[in-house]
Amino acid sequence: MNSPTLLPLPGPFTEPWLDRAGAPAENREVNHLVRRAFGDATAFLRHSRRLGWADLVVVAALGGVAFAASRLAQGAALPMRPAVEIDLSLAALPGYTVLSLMRGLAALALSLLFTLAYGYWAARDALAERVLVPLLDVLQSVPVLGFMPGLVLSLVALFPGSNIGIELAAIVMIFTGQAWNMTFSFYRSVRSVPAVQLEVAHHYHFSWWQRFRWVELPASVIGLTWNAMMSMAGGWFFLMVSEAFVLGSRDFRLPGLGAYMSVAVAAGDGRAMLAAVVAMVVMIVVLDQLLWRPVVVWSQKFRQDEGQGGEEARSWFLDLLRRSRLVRLLRRWRRRLASSVTPKPHPPVEPSAAAGRLSRLLPLVLFGGLMVLLAVGALELVRLLREVAWSVWATTLLAAGATLARVLLAVALGTLWALPAGLAIGLSPKLSRVLQPVVQVVASFPAPMLFPAVVAVLAQLGVGLSGGSVVLMLLGTQWYILFNVVAGAMAVPSDLREAAASYRITGWRRFKLLLLPSVLPYLITGWVTAAGGAWNASIVSEYVAYRGQTLTTFGLGARIGVAAEAADFPLLAASVVVMSAVVVLFNRLVWRPLNSYAERRFTP
Amino acid sequence: MAADTARPPLYAIEGVSHTFVLPSGQRLEVLRDVSVEIREDEVVALLGPSGCGKSTILRILAGLIKPTSGAVKVRGQPLLGMAPGVAIVFQGFALFPWMTVVENVRAVLQAAGLPPAEAATRIADAIRMVGLAGFEEAYPRELSGGMKQRVGMARALSLRPEALFMDEPFSQVDALTAEALRAEILDIWSAKQQDPSALLLVSHDIKEVVTMADRIVVLSANPGRVRTVVENRLPRPRDPRSPEVLALVDRLHDLITGHELPDLPEPAAPAAVEAQPEILPSAPVGDVIGLIEWLDARGGQEDVFRIAAETGREFGHLLTAVKAAELLELVDTPKRLAVLTSGGKAFAAAGPEGRKAAWREKLLTLRLFADVRDALAVAPGHRLPRDFVLDTIVLRMPAEDYDRVFQIWIGWARYGDLFAYDEDDGTVSLQ
């Protein structure tokens, strides 16, 4: 065939030759066929490209979660094996990391459930509120280790012969490091739903469930998101303790990243320690990208303010999910399912007498149950505390003083660097864009995993644990100060900054007149959170396991660590009670007045 | 529009009084012996200055608030719970920011238990009726004030209510949009084959009330009481610029000024001064001085309503400033005029120091200030806690929110260089 007029060489990716007008009829036929085949092929290609990797990622993620969950469940169902052998090889690390991740997520789910139930109850029932809110304040100040023995012993006893009890205990211990601030946030959000929105709900006969779903829950999404992020980081803080702990003569160890680290530290295996740190960082980054970013972006929908609001947050993963056909399909199914279950028309009726009686009775019954629970707990506590000798009380109080001094020192040291650094970051959009994500990852990293390295450096420098524990506390809590100062610096009104610039107010005077007053309310919030974290961290800072030996110094945290390990319950109870009391008192007498002063004087 | 008196009114309150208990435990009487009724096929307006309890009356009629005393009736039957057949359009729109236009409307239909198919038609109808087509998937934050209030109206109308209650619906909407919305609402109401058959409009805008309402309930403040009820038989549609409408607006103006700024001097019996409550109008110093300046620049007198119109102030706010100036004997108020007194003219002519001196002198003729000055003179360090002043205020103005009164009080005193107030330790001292 030699007919260049019929099928000239096409230019790359151009198709007009297919329908050239001057072509003979039979050729047009051929052309038509070619075009059809070609069109089908491109359509198929486009089709498969759309199905492509967005769905692949979704399927892989779902599969991964299912696999990890089943492994966790399998491990839990195994016959009782309190101390699992931890394999320090690198190959075992990914598996351990996934198991720890699953525990963290399970704890988060538990925290969320607790938050919704407890926070809603406290917000909607004025009688219960008077007990629940102070109780939450106390729970928040109880160190995580204070919950450990009771939880472990009761849960292990509940599931004799299997690891479910220990597994649950680990999850609940992580939960105790996560739940409280989420609950507070939710409670406050529900309480501060704008009155007019409640009026609309009331006027248009929303049922309690509709009010919850359409008004109260949306109003709390943003606060809950940020607090859940913080909680997740707080939960990791005690990962090592939660997965590997000693209670009296019994040694408990679960397969996971925390236990891997503990064993690596005990064995002095530097390579394994480094690997665990890397695994932790990877886990935090992945979690940030795949869970928190998308949730944060999604939560922006629930802003209360009507303004357009500054920069839009973005998440590549959420974009991907939105692009995924699979997810769209699932959503369509869900919608179809929802609409097929047609709600029966129920004309709004006045509540019947019986329903009215029930709705009045239920809170009372719940409240009664709560009071009984509290009374039993209090009795049990008193019984334990009566065994504590006066001299022990005296030493405990002295130890509390020592730890208090360390906590305050850690907060002061943290302020010293975090205040200027936070101002620098917050006032410079460029710096904050670059550093914010880095700082976030660093801050989520559980400081105790770095303790062995820090202790080694301190030992080299000849610093004992008495001072060294301050550094350890600092590692975990300085970020709260930094974050709050950054937020405060970003919120300095731009007209004030311009005014200061135009009147040539610079340097120290600018700091004193403009910056410090503007960030003070934020700084105080940072102090409160940092101090709370430092108290909790004192347990792992004053009592550090390092290369098979245990370093301790005089302090309340060390006493709690010792008592827990020795299963000396009266001493543990006494120490925990003293710590909670000091924290609550300090909050009431120092932080709260300081906070309200700052709010009154320095917020516009 | 003749009231059908044979049948009981759709919604009515009879002899209602209401007292709020403030968080401080203080009681605030907002309504005293108020009766209002709403009949089929009529538009009723509640007109009055801010703080006269208009919105509270609307909420009591709707069943959102249970009054302290008095009867609430629906078609002659005592009301339990929420009033049936009522939909409210709220002043601040009260839309859920996380729901789109459609979702905002759908929520109330779902709550009313409508099946999805029926709800979908009603949503489409309501959205078309208020002219929101094309904005179904928009979020409230993307809409202007006028569009937001259309969503509020669509939400209310989608329930096909017998009565639409509107709580200052156009006060947060620009003037042109408000004009259009008023006409649309009247169109919807006058279509007899569909609900709503009755409208209740809460407003402080006299023109709005005259163009819209068949019956105007004029209220007075502190506590809220019905001053009078004006029947408005002007034929519809009403042109806001027609002489008949303007005449009625004028009449209402006179009614309100005549009550709020009475011409008769109150008999000042010296013996009764102790027991007489002394009301401090809640006008900040700047408003009073601004009023004096304004009057001075216009030859010393002006119609109060023209002042409101030309300065763009809400009439109620302006009245408090006039009352304050009158209390300080800076202006006089014959009929609806505000006239500078000789004291007022001197005040306007004086420099900053002269003004402060005159102001101080006037303040000391008021017991609220004189009492505190006398007490400070003998107090150790010439210093007294804020609570002492609050007690004095409560004694003189029992029905008021004393925190707010204190703010005004200290503002007046500071301007007159009379007292100083230290917020940190909460003490008042002699200047």
Present the secondary structure layout.
The complex is a heterodimer of chains A (604) and B (431).
Chain A lengths: L24 H53 L15 H32 L1 H16 L2 H15 L5 H13 L2 H13 L3 H9 L4 H30 L1 H5 E4 L2 E4 L3 H11 L2 H30 L16 H8 L1 H16 L12 H33 L4 H38 L1 H16 L6 H11 L3 H26 L3 H9 L4 H35 L1 E4 L2 E4 L3 H10 L3 H34 L2
Antiparallel strand pairs in A: 1-2, 3-4
Helix pairs in contact in A: 1-2, 1-5, 2-3, 2-5, 2-6, 2-8, 2-11, 3-6, 3-22, 4-5, 6-8, 8-11, 10-11, 11-12, 15-16, 15-18, 15-20, 15-22, 16-18, 17-18, 18-20, 20-21, 20-22, 21-22
Chain B lengths: L10 E11 L5 E12 L4 E5 L6 H9 L6 E6 L2 E2 L7 E4 L11 H11 L4 H14 L15 H13 L5 E5 L7 H16 L7 E6 L2 H7 L2 E6 L4 E7 L11 H18 L24 H13 L3 E3 H8 L3 H13 L3 E2 L4 E4 L1 H8 L2 H12 L3 H12 L4 E3 H11 L5 H14 L3 E4 L4 E4 L1
Parallel strand pairs in B: 3-8, 3-9, 6-7, 7-8
Antiparallel strand pairs in B: 1-2, 1-4, 4-5, 9-10, 11-13, 12-13, 14-16, 15-16
Helix pairs in contact in B: 2-3, 2-4, 3-4, 6-7, 8-10, 8-11, 9-10, 14-15
Report on the structure:
The complex is a heterodimer of chains A (604) and B (431). Chain A has 604 residues and is mainly α. Chain A is built from 22 helices and four strands. Chain A has helices at residues 25-77, 93-124, 126-141, 144-158, 164-176, 179-191, 195-203, 208-237, 239-243, 257-267, 270-299, 316-323, 325-340, 353-385, 390-427, 429-444, 451-461, 465-490, 494-502, 507-541, 556-565, 569-602; strands spanning 244-247, 250-253, 543-546, 549-552. The longest helix of chain A has 53 residues, at 25-77. Chain A is 77% helix and 3% strand. Chain B folds into two domains: 11-257, Rossmann fold (3-Layer(aba) Sandwich), CATH 3.40.50; 266-431, no CATH class. Helices cover 42% and strands 19% of the residues of chain B. Chain B has 15 helices and 16 strands. Chain B is globular and about 75 Å long. The N and C termini of chain B lie far apart (63 Å). The A-B interface holds A 196-197, 199-200, 202-207, 210, 214-215, 218, 221, 301-308, 339, 342-348, 350 and B 62, 64, 80-82, 86-88, 90, 92, 94, 96-99, 107-108, 110-116, 139-141, 155, 159.
